[in-house]
Design goal:
Blueprint: H1 4-18, E1 20-22, E2 33-34, H2 39-51, H3 56-79, H4 101-119, H5 136-140, H6 144-164, H7 168-174, H8 187-216
Antiparallel strand pairs: 1-2
Helix pairs in contact: 1-2, 1-4, 2-3, 2-4, 3-4, 4-6, 6-8
Length: 217
């Protein structure tokens, strides 16, 4: 039986591969790149989709590989912030500005794959290390609705991060001049970056509290 998580991961995976992973930022030595042009994007998407439909042990390894690929792209793009061409510019770039829509879609594919993996595990009394993944510890102990609510909350917070970042289309409009978009206050971006961390921390605390209550009674 094909699970909804697998269908969602496959659909979102296609979107991730046809979407932008890197905006064009000549001053950071970045050209526009789509997911299907990047080996790392293929690894992130295919490993996650495979994890959503395979056995738990193999699926865990594939999900870990996908997560590493997603994290590696974030790290690689962040390195470009050290480019000399960005020094002294009015617009202060953040790592989130150099991540295209495809990267966020791949992150969603990974989340769906992990959800599918955890939902196939037998119910346990304690969440174990899954407590550090938003909602997944709760899903592990049978609190599926509550767990997925936390997962949705983190997803919404990450979406706000994307909206606070400089849009890929804005970079594209200025690439012909080899310049950055105009400078602006980045306070909203900093606030948005803190939201996923706050929701994640709250989900960990809630998982710990619910698991303790379940163990007592």
């Amino acid at each position: 039986m094909i699970r909804p998580q697998a269908v969602g991961a496959a659909a979102l995976g296609v979107l991730a591969l046809v979407s932008i992973w890197s905006p064009p930022v000549p001053r950071a030595e970045l050209s526009q790149s789509f997911g299907f042009q990047l080996a790392l994007a293929w690894v992130a998407v295919l490993a996650a989709v495979a994890a959503a439909v395979t056995t738990s042990r193999l699926g865990t390894a594939l999900a870990a590989l996908s997560g590493l690929a997603v994290a590696a792209w974030l790290g690689w793009q962040s390195v470009h912030l050290l480019s000399p061409g960005l020094a002294g510019q009015d617009l202060r770039l953040l790592p989130i500005d150099l991540l295209g829509e495809g990267w966020y879609a791949a992150l969603g594919v990974w989340a769906l794959a992990v959800d599918g993996l955890v939902s196939r595990l037998p119910e346990a009394q304690r969440p174990g290390w899954l407590a550090v993944l938003p909602g997944m510890g709760l899903l592990r102990i049978g609190e599926a609705g509550r767990g997925r609510a936390w997962l949705a909350g983190v997803a919404a917070a990450i979406l706000m991060v994307k909206f606070a970042a400089v849009d890929s289309l804005e970079f594209a409009a200025f690439q012909h001049y080899a310049e950055l978009p105009p400078g602006r206050p980045r306070i909203l971006a900093y606030v948005a970056l803190g939201l996923p961390l706050l929701v994640w921390a709250a989900s960990v605390v809630d998982t710990w509290r619910v698991s303790r209550l379940a163990a007592r009674g």
